[in-house]
Specification:
The complex is a heterodimer of chains A (113) and B (112). In chain A, strands 2, 4, 5, 9, 10 and 11 form a six-stranded mixed β-sheet that branches. In chain A, strands 1-3-8-7-6 form a five-stranded antiparallel β-sheet, with no helix packed on it. Chain A starts with a strand and ends with a strand. Chain A contains no helices and eleven strands. Chain A is mainly beta and 113 residues long. Chain B has 112 residues and is mainly beta. In chain B, 0% of the residues lie in helices and 52% in strands. Chain B has no helices and eleven strands. In chain B, the strands form two sheets. In chain B, strands 2, 4, 5, 6, 9, 10 and 11 form a seven-stranded mixed β-sheet that branches. In chain B, strands 1-3-8-7 form a four-stranded antiparallel β-sheet, with no helix packed on it. Classes of the chains: A mainly beta (113), B mainly beta (112).
């Protein structure tokens, strides 16, 4: 049973702070990792993906991957109230596996002014 | 470019009835995925269609079924509706090596 674990939160941070969202996964064969943002009542939107160990930066967002420890994290710098949403971590096997990503339940982030 | 479109937006059905949900993928995308998102739960994978064929199925009973048409649009059918089928049903599409999915806005199914 492949599992993806996230702290449900809510994680509350002040505006301008760094928000750190974490995700652990059980399947060592996982090779693709995604972060989706889901605003209340809306559908998930892909914001970051990472395949290799280390950091990947895109604007205010940084994804960090550590395959040896089986965790992936998302850092949001200079957090804004508009970043308040649920962040879903998804983990996928390579083609040839099930090829269907497993989603965590998400972490609720609240950025307060 | 139009995104993934789903219809209807909301659907209210009575227990025991059948529901049909529809999805049109992004133009050029051949894969369609269906997910269920019940309140307080994560995204649960239902079905994957590619090139008209069912490629994978999640851990759901057979009363959840669907199909993909030659134009790559897809239909999800839920028979013998139960109260616990009330959820947001999301359709997503993808193409080839593109990372991740693009989700539609979903169909909110309420079973009363």
């Amino acid at each position: 049973q492949k599992e993806v674990e996230q702290n449900s939160g809510p994680l509350s941070v002040p505006e301008g702070a760094i928000a750190s969202l974490n995700c652990t996964y059980s399947d060592q064969g996982s090779q693709s990792f995604f972060w989706y943002r889901q605003y209340s009542g809306k559908s998930p939107e892909l914001i970051m993906f990472i395949y290799s160990n280390g950091d990947k930066e895109d604007g205010r967002f940084t994804a960090q991957l550590n395959k040896a420890s089986q965790y992936v994290s998302l850092l949001i710098r200079d957090s804004q109230p508009s970043d308040s949403a649920t962040y879903l971590c998804a983990v996928q096997n390579p083609p040839g596996g099930s090829y269907i990503p497993t989603f965590g339940r998400g972490t609720s982030l609240i950025v307060h002014p | 470019e139009a995104g993934v479109t789903q219809s209807p937006t909301h659907l209210i059905k009575t227990r025991g009835q059948q529901a049909t949900l529809r999805c049109s993928p992004i133009s050029g995308h051949t894969s369609v995925y269906w997910y269920q998102q019940a309140l307080g739960l994560g995204l649960q994978f239902l079905l994957w269609y590619d090139e008209g064929e069912e490629r994978n199925r999640g851990n759901f009973p057979p009363r959840f079924s669907g199909r993909q048409f030659p134009n790559y649009s897809s239909e999800l059918n839920v028979n013998a509706l139960e109260l616990e089928d009330s959820a947001l049903y999301l359709c997503a599409s993808s193409f080839g090596g593109d990372p991740g999915y693009t989700f539609g806005s979903g169909t909110r199914l309420t079973v009363v």
